[in-house]
User: What shape does this take?
Amino acid sequence: FVCGLSSHVFANPQFQTGDIIFHISKSQQSLVIQQVTHSPYSHMGMIVNKNGQTWVLEAIQPVQYTALNKWIARGVKGHYVVKRMQSALNVSQKQKLVKNAEQYLGRPYDIYFEWSNRAIYCSEIIWKAYDDALGIQLAPLQHLKQFDLKQNEVQRLMRQRYGQNIPLNEQVIAPKAIYD
Assistant: This one.
């Protein structure tokens, strides 16, 4: 993996299409994601080199490409971690991966973390792109009930989003699972 603190990166050859980048988001739900997963990293995306620039394909509102330097700047203190498959992806694999992930461009961000394609969240798009395009399951899927749901902030956010019907059996993938 590559770790850095720079917030000014363009078409850098150290980043390859298909690399997975993680940071600590400044979003409202970031702390909750950190608490339920016991991980500092609460957001992730996939590096894509195209048109002479390095981008992050990410599920925010909506799913979109974000210039790498802007993506890094959105994280806490500009810290990020990049991970790469141990066996390098070839050009054909990278193209299939990007094409598969791009099918989600413009879709809304999934605040309910449902395992559907109607809306999609950050770790879901990366997991599905690798699985659907290359048959690589980056981490085992989990169920919502497997996470640490005890903290007050977590309980409050779940009641706000789900009411009394919290989908504890919903299949999910967290940034931490892919990071690990």
